[in-house]
Amino acid sequence: MNIGEASKASGVSAKMIRYYESVGLIPAAGRTTSGYRLYTMTDVQVLRFIRRARDLGFPVEKIEELLALWQDRSRQSADVKRIALEQIAGLETRIREMQAMMDTLRHLADACCGDHRPDCPILADLLEGPQQVDAHSEGGRSAANRSGPATILQTH
């Protein structure tokens, strides 16, 4: 089958199939005399495997390891489980990081009046990074911050 048919059968775009071939994740496809790539059902199975692994967030390097284990009939399932558990730990870390980003953005959005005034703690944070909240600050921003970044941003 050609690359379009392999793409349709596997759910992997032709562009990604070419990419996986270029990085060595899949072997170079056979070619017709006119140079078109040819794929087998085995190739489609490998592409489906890769797509599912990508759907689960595995990076290319780990997919390469998983493919090697899948193709190795003398593999130990403990090796596969180790890779899966490492992926779970990585996903949990990313979830915590994303939750922290959401919490920060929610806090900044709550601190922003969202009115006609130019002062905005969201823009100030993007410019300067997180600020210490001063007990005497107005809206979570110190006096220095109120006149600093907002004024700079206003003039540009």
UniProtKB/TrEMBL annotation:
Write out the annotated subcellular location: Cytoplasm
Mind telling me which Pfam families this protein's record contains? MerR, MerR-DNA-bind
Supply the CDD domains for this chain: HTH_CueR
Q: Where is this region: Disordered?
A: 133-156
Entry-linked InterPro entries: CueR, DNA-bd_dom_put_sf, MerR-type_HTH_dom, MerR_fam, Tscrpt_reg_MerR_DNA-bd
Q: Which residues form a coiled coil?
A: 81-108
Record key words, sorted? Coiled coil, Cytoplasm, DNA-binding, Transcription, Transcription regulation
According to the entry, every stretch annotated as the HTH merR-type domain falls at 1-69
Principal location class: cytoplasm
What domain of life does the native source organism fall in? Answer: Bacteria
Name the record gives this protein: Cu(I)-responsive transcriptional regulator
Q: What is the lineage of its organism?
A: Bacteria, Pseudomonadati, Pseudomonadota, Alphaproteobacteria, Rhodobacterales
Gene that produces this protein: cueR
